[in-house]
Amino acid sequence: MVDQEMLYAFLSQGKMDEVKKLTQKALQEGDSPEVILNQGLIPAMEKIGARFKNGDIYIPEVLIAARAMHAGMDVLKPILSKSNTPMAGKIVIGTVKGDLHDIGKNLVIMLLEGGGFEVVDLGVDVSSETFLRAVDQHHPHVVAMSALLTTTLPEMKKTIDALKQAGLKGRVKTLVGGAPVTEKFAREIGADGYAPDAASAVDKVKQFIADESH
Ligand code: B1M
Known about the structure:
Number of helices: 9
Structural class: alpha/beta
Radius of gyration: 18 Å
Strand content: 5-15%
Helix content: 55-70%
Oligomer: single chain
Bound molecules: CO-5-methoxybenzimidazolylcobamide
């Protein structure tokens, strides 16, 4: 069983090697990557978030913790992404313009790849123009957008409107997610779907593609 307390201690000190080793140890002891994520890495990062919110720690500490979390996620990625099925569909994904948070997005990518989807990662700070160009270039089934800041939420609408204007809205589905995003907000901006977490994002994409083939 993943040692939550130790994981949190290492994560909060930004000890990348230790987080990596602890993640590997948990895997060797039989924990599934999903358990390590959902009962280890994510709750530890949530604790960091709460301490950041309370003003107990500051951005540099959050940043080194995030880097340590990535070290753990790097161990899990090849396992989560392993899939024997042919590519089930293509997704273009990015964190919207003005927003540099990418941990949640990367989690969504890992699970999508694990679900057999081909993912084009546009990274962070992605403008509506870049999303549009990527749709043109890659012809995805889904455009997926992540936002963690209330101030960057309008960028999601901007991209959806730009897709509409370019006549591409019928060709691709849009999926939005991230901590400040809600189902209601997604409906209001005309997104085709909303997912509260990475696993639900995969379910939504599967649903989109199933609907498409009917
Ligand atoms: Co920032 N930050 N941050 N931060 N940061 C938050 C988001 C904040 C809530 C902290 C707080 O005040 N309590 C707050 C936002 C407030 C708001 O707008 N509501 C905040 C702020 C204010 C800021 C800055 C403005 C701080 C400053 O400079 N004053 C600044 C902005 C920089 C920018 O983006 N332009 C900033 C900077 C940073 C760091 C760089 C230090 C770092 C990011 C490092 C990185 O991502 N590489 C950081 C971090 C780490 C956080 C917290 C602590 C953790 C976020 C995280 O990674 N969570 C966060 C507080 C918190 O959330 N508790 C906070 C773990 C991750 C797995 O969860 O991303 O929510 P999350 O993803 C979830 C779901 O949301 C969902 O799936 C995941 C779970 O399965 N999901 C999707 C995400 N995307 C999805 C897409 C989908 C579907 C589901 O479909 C497409």
